Predict the structure.
Amino acid sequence: MAQSPSPETTSDAPADVSTLSYEAARDELVAVVAELEQGASTLERSLALWERGEALAGRCEEWLLGARERLEAARRQAPAS
């Protein structure tokens, strides 16, 4: 009997990663890594988790790069003391 993938691991799921906050993406990434470390039930499930993890890691990186750019912009605008 084939196991249907959960909503967060369907083939079109990574598209919704772009709507996640940093915290939501990070928390889901932690869960994905934990499941991969425990050994997913099938190769297909492992691949789906890996792909989801890659998308989530990319989203986290986007947030962090954006935060860095905002900090640098704020530093440039701050008056020198």
